[in-house]
Amino acid sequence: MTAQSWHSIASGKPYLVTGSSAGAVTSLDQFLGDAEFSIDGEGGPVLVRGHGVPLEGKVRFHEKSEIGGKDVRVWHVSADERGIVAESIAAF
Asked: In angstroms, rounded to a whole number, what is the distance separating the alpha carbons of residues 3 and 45?
């Protein structure tokens, strides 16, 4: 997947997930463990990579600068009427 991860991301806005390293996005299970996916960001595709864990019907995904790298942001990945979406959240 080719995308840029430096685009501005609005906290609390659900972005449509457009692809994953596992292929077509069909299940939240694809976001568990080490994974990467792309979202339809405001300035074009954005690559998100990191590690996901299950959380009450969604996945809490810790974005990293690279797999195993420094923390960048936390996402909640869930399903809605559009498909699979990822929402950056404030996690302190």
From this structure: 5
